[in-house]
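Pilot study result, target chain (119 residues):
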Amino acid sequence: MAYAIIKTGGRQFRVAEGDTIDVDLLEGDAGAKTTFGEVLLHADGENLTHGSPFVSGATVTAEVVEQRKDKKVIAFKYRRRKGYHRTVGHRRKLTRVKITGIELASKKKTAKSEATSAE
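Predicted structure:
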């Protein structure tokens, strides 16, 4: 099973074709296609390709499933015996994407290379 490690939004994700992940907010409505070009590692079961820092020519394509918000996070500050307390909360904006393909540039075959290999 081929998988890749991509970098987006300051985080790294291990993805395989068909996976659904939540990443930081990306442009695009539901159904839009997006491409992740920062691929750190690609593995297809036999071969392992890692970049320094990125694998050149490798891309991961995905489809935006929905734009959503994460669970509410409450930050409560309190100082004992001082009469000080403060509540601050926020919800991260996320984009849920479904991975549709992982491509490695060296793995692509053109019509010329297929004709040459057939001879």
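One observation from the pilot: Helices lie at 111-118. A full batch analysis is planned for the follow-on phase.
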